[in-house]
Design goal:
The protein has 67 residues and is mainly beta. It has strands at 12-18, 24-31, 35-40, 46-48, 55-61.
Length: 67
């Protein structure tokens, strides 16, 4: 898998690389009112996916197993 500028359409965990910023792991969650939301790790902030532009995405990623 490679980085892409295509906007994600599935819920899950993704690497997000915004222009001029370090990559972050974020969670995407569908909201019936606001559509897809970006949930920021370590924060209670939620950002509508639709306002994030000029970003690169990697995912969805799968957490490692407990085994």
């Amino acid at each position: 898998m490679k980085w892409t500028t295509d906007t994600p359409t599935e819920q899950g965990l993704y690497w997000l690389h915004e222009e001029d910023d370090d990559p972050n792991v974020v969670a995407l969650s569908k909201n019936p009112v606001h559509g897809m939301l970006v949930l920021w790790h370590g924060s209670e902030s939620e950002t509508p996916l639709s306002i994030l532009t000029n970003c690169r995405w990697y995912g969805p990623i799968t957490p490692p197993s407990e085994e």
